[in-house]
Amino acid sequence: MYKNELDKHIQNRSISNSFVFFGESSFLIDMYTKKVTNIEDASLLQFYHDEYDFNSAKAHLSQASLFGGQNVLIIKSEKKVPKKDLDIFIDYCEKNPDNIFVYAYYGSDHKTYTKAFSKKSTMSVRFFHPNQGESIFTVSSVAREKNVNIDNYTITHLLGIHNGDVALACNEIDKFKVYDRAITTKDVDNLVFGLAEVNIDDFIKKILNKKDFRFELQNILEHGEDEIRVITAICSYITQLYMFNIYIRVNGVPNALEILGYPAPKFVVDEKAAQSLRFKPSTYYKLHELLLTSELKMKSSNVDKNAILLSTLIKIQQLL
Could you read off the pLDDT of 117-139 as tens digits, one per residue? Predict the structure, then answer.
């Protein structure tokens, strides 16, 4: 089954109560997992990757809900859960319509689940990366849910800023909730820091590695990016590193799904983890304090934002 078929079942209220989601788009897997499990007062049990425990999962679906509602079981994993385990969970759902089970598989072995459950009522859905039309529709749906008035032309502009990444575009929608009117492309340009023309991550890595960043900074500013948004992007990047740092200190190894909210390629996770451990918590505190203070200064009237930005970047390297 593909996304459009699942959409029709959702629209017609003919969906099953057990699902196997897989494919190339982690964003759509997450989106539809939330959509089919958004049950008020449900008893939810969720496993991430290596947390999965068969006995606990089985017990959750086999017992009556503590609140008299529905039992919801979600397993998110890049590793394959044994099919015999999945069959048992699906059987519990077929026997009890109050159960809901979703297996969200983020691995690359897509063929395994294409026809694996054809004899059962479970809905096995493969999600491909959305095309342009699907991306616009998805962002538009998220905007409607959040009462943001934005047309398809402006959504296309937003997607263009993020190189067509629908996940990043959807994450930006909350920024527009402050406007009680239709969103324009100018609003998008004012509030969204784009990655289309300049690789901001490479720029930040140069800063953190104490390398000469002046050429990249000039390139960013020449492409029309605002100094405040540069500061905001750096702050977000460092916050993400700090989240990796804390998680690794507590758990020993990083888990992208829990830290970032979505699975990331191994090389990305390894790089972020290595970067995060280079700095002490006290250094992260000083960096955040510096960046937030600089942002506040930039928002004052009659200031040289370019000078403040350059001074801030130099101070960052001095703190490292």
Answer: 877 789 999 998 888 888 999 99
Q: How far apart are the first and last CA of the chain?
A: 51
Query: How many Å separate Cα 130 from the centre of its chain?
Result: 16
Domains of the chain listed by start with CATH number: 3-127 (3.40.50.300), 132-191 (1.10.8), 200-319 (1.20.272.10)
Q: For helices 83-95 and 54-62, what crossing angle results, to 10°? A: 10
Q: Around Cβ 301, how many Cβ atoms within 10 Å?
A: 4
In angstroms, the CA 76 to CA 52 distance is 9
Distance CA 118, CA 112 (A): 12
Q: Report, as an integer, the average pLDDT of 183-193.
A: 82
Tell me the DSSP string of 214-264.
HHHHHHHHHTT--HHHHHHHHHHHHHHHHHHHHHHHHHSS--HHHHHSS--
Q: Which residues pair with 47 in a beta bridge?
A: 75
Over range 51-63, report the average pLDDT.
Answer: 89
pTM for this model (two decimals): 0.59
Q: Please say whether the beta carbons of 75 and 102 come within 8 A.
A: yes
Residue 317 CA to residue 320 CA, distance in Å, equals 5
The rounded distance, in Å, linking the Cα atoms of 20 and 220 is 43
